[in-house]
Amino acid sequence: MNEYMKIAKDLARDNIKTNAGGPFGACIVKNRKIIGIGSNLVLANNDPTAHAEIQAIRDACKNIKSYDLSDCEIYTSCYPCPMCLSAIIWSNIKLVYYGNTKEDAGMIGFRDDFIYNFIGNLSKNIEDSNILELKCIDRDETIKEFEDFTKKEDKTIY
User: Fold this and answer.
1) Backbone φ/ψ region at 93: left (φ over 0), alpha (ψ -120 to 50), beta
2) What is the CA radius of gyration of the chain?
3) What secondary structure letter does DSSP report for 152?
4) Is the dihedral of CA 82, 87, 92, 95 positive or negative?
5) Strand 33-39 to strand 72-78: parallel, antiparallel, or no bridges (unpaired)?
6) How far is CA 46 from CA 40, 42, 51, in A?
7) CB-based contacts of 74: which residues, under 8 Å, 6+ apart?
């Protein structure tokens, strides 16, 4: 077994014993060195964003003191959910190794398919208000901060 996937697997295994969250673990590697680890802490932290991949990203960024995880790879015990995929992309990780499939996760009760479908339908301009309603309001006011940001000389865009 790959040494980094074994760490992700072991984190998932340990999580089964703690009931801190689901059976998910992840580690982030840069230049063959682990810079971040995480397990699912959704229940322990009462935080729906505390997935293993998010926790590993937070740990890695803290450890290297940067929001940019370019040249890193993530090993996760399961195919990342849409939120985690987005966080992985935002952090500039370009390679994901995963163990279990999203179908495997669905078989044990972790269903992300409705989120994938919702996002896919948004790209077709079809909204499902049974899942989430999106309404644009007060853009004429909120756009002012964007306009001010474009004038800022010391801005960082990530």
Assistant:
1) beta
2) 18
3) -
4) negative
5) unpaired
6) 11, 6, 11
7) 26, 27, 28, 29, 53, 56, 57, 88, 93, 95, 96, 97
What the block records as the tokens of 74 is 């993530």
- Tracing tokens 């195919």 back to the chain, one arrives at 79
Tens of pLDDT, residue by residue over 25-45, are 999 999 999 999 999 999 999
What's the predicted TM-score (pTM) here?
A: 0.91
Residue type, 80: P
Q: Compute the distance between CA of residue 158 and CA of residue 155 in angstroms, rounded to an integer.
A: 10
**How does strand 95-100 pair with strand 72-78?**
parallel
User: For residue 129, what are its two tokens?
Assistant: 């208000």
Give the closest residue to 88 by CA, choosing from 116, 63, 60. Answer: 60
CA torsion angle 137 132 87 150 (round to 10) = -10
Active site (annotated) includes residue 153: no
The token duo for 93 is 């990780």
Residue in the block written with tokens 């500039």: 92
